[in-house]
Amino acid sequence: HYSFFPGMPRWPSNKRDLTYAFLPDNQLTDEVKNVFATAFDRWSEATSLTFTRTDFYTSADIRIGFFTGDHGDGEPFDGAMGTLAHAFSPPNGRFHLDGDENWVITSGTTTSISMSAIDLESVAVHEIGHLLGLGHSSVEDAIMYPSISSGSRKVELANDDIQGIQALY
Ligand code: TQI
Ligand code: ZN
Ligand code: ZN
């Protein structure tokens, strides 16, 4: 079953169009940016929320960047494997990914990938759940389940994720 963060924080009801931006220094390819756009779409399909990309990093609601090791927020990354990414509850908007992971981009029909690789879209969909206010789920098929078998791809919201996000928005 889905869960929320303590106190059930969520984006305010007068704010249904959230903006997101990529850390300019990362110079991400369009292919990478499109993975995040697809991940946001999965959540907007289940809610009245929309997500719009902006170039204004500091004022965006959701700020996405790849960082390695200690990057100044008190939650250092740990090199390959271990922690892959972290995101915070509303209305924080901080979404950091560990630049030391072997990130891969997979396409729609892929079901398994190299054991040492981490599927970017799978992690993005999970972290966006946190950014919107979902905690972890006890349902193994759910995007918000707190583990993913290595070398796998899981990008489609389960009924449990949909019920959770619809209880918030
Ligand atoms: N990062 C953890 C996560 O996002 C960070 C975390 C631990 C956390 N406990 C939390 C965040 C409680 C919010 C609330 O869950 S992670 C997975 C999964 C991670 C893990 O790097 O371990 C995914 C990131 F589910 F596969 F284990 C993405 Cl998909
Ligand atoms: Zn961080
Ligand atoms: Zn999580």
Low-confidence stretches: none
The percent range for helix content is 10-25%
Q: In oligomeric terms, what are we looking at?
A: single chain
State the CATH class: Alpha Beta
Give the integer mean of the pLDDT values. Answer: 95
What is the second-level CATH architecture?
3-Layer(aba) Sandwich
Number of individual domains: 1
The hetero compounds bound to this protein are: ligand TQI, zinc ion
Give the ordered list of helices and strands: EHEEEEEEHH
Strand count, sense and barrel status of the largest sheet are:
5 strands, mixed
Determine the N-to-C terminus distance: 17 Å
Strand proportion:
15-25%
Shape: globular
Task: Give a short overview.
This protein is of the alpha/beta class and 169 residues long. The chain has three helices and seven strands; from the N terminus they run βαββββββαα.
Could you describe the 3D structure shown?
The chain has three helices and seven strands; from the N terminus they run βαββββββαα. The chain is an alpha/beta fold and 169 residues long. The protein has a five-stranded mixed beta sheet, with helices on one face. Helix 1 links the parallel strand 1 (17-22) and strand 2. Helix 1 packs across helix 2 (120-132). The protein is globular and about 40 Å long. The relative contact order is 0.21. The model has no long low-confidence stretch (mean pLDDT 95). One zinc ion binds at residues 126, 130, 136, 146.
